[in-house]
Specification:
Blueprint lengths: L1 E7 L19 H16 L6 E4 L3 H13 L8 E2 L8 H9 L7 E6 L3 H6 L15 E6 L12 E7 L5
Parallel strand pairs: 1-4, 2-3, 2-4
Antiparallel strand pairs: 1-5, 5-6
Helix pairs in contact: 1-2
């Protein structure tokens, strides 16, 4: 059994409108929501074996908060530049290359691609992945190479305002 969590980056700052989109940091709410969501996973006994993140500042910072909560060294976050504004096919390509020793993996990325991707996975649909939302599925497979063709079962969907 493999478990995949798709996490949209936490809320980003628009304080500096001249800043490149890729370089936007988290705002205050983002800095509160990311650790809160990571702690919710821990409370629900979710484990994470690997974190894969877009290299955009807001996504990587979100992943770092999850790494801290799960006692994963920040240097062990897998940096994946192609996750920045990725289309669904990119997610499938990245997932197919995940080390099969990893049972539960979290991927940190952006809209609109992450919403498009989660809506291709199973019968559960979301209109829009809110910032720092987590959409999770399970697949009864031995290798991540099988993920794209495997039947995926909805596991859970959570987001910061879902309290």
């Amino acid at each position: 059994m493999k478990k995949l969590l798709l996490v949209r980056h936490a809320k980003s700052s628009w304080d500096d409108i001249s800043q490149k989109d890729f370089d936007r940091p988290l705002n205050d709410r983002g800095h509160r929501d990311a650790p809160k969501m990571a702690k919710r996973l821990l409370k629900d006994d979710v484990t994470l074996d690997a974190l894969i993140s877009s290299t955009a500042v807001r996504a990587l910072t979100t992943a770092e908060y999850f790494a801290e909560a799960f006692d994963i060294k920040k240097k062990n976050i897998i940096h994946e530049p192609s996750l920045y504004l990725a289309e669904p096919k990119v997610f499938f390509e990245i997932i197919s290359k995940i080390d099969d020793d990893h049972k539960t993996v979290a991927i940190f990325s952006h809209n609109p691609g992450i919403t498009e991707f989660v809506n291709q996975l199973c019968n559960t649909r979301v209109d829009d992945m809110p910032t720092c939302a987590i959409f999770a599925v399970k697949a009864d497979i031995k290798s991540w190479k099988e993920f794209a063709e495997a039947e995926k079962k909805f596991w859970f969907f959570d987001y910061p305002k879902n309290e």
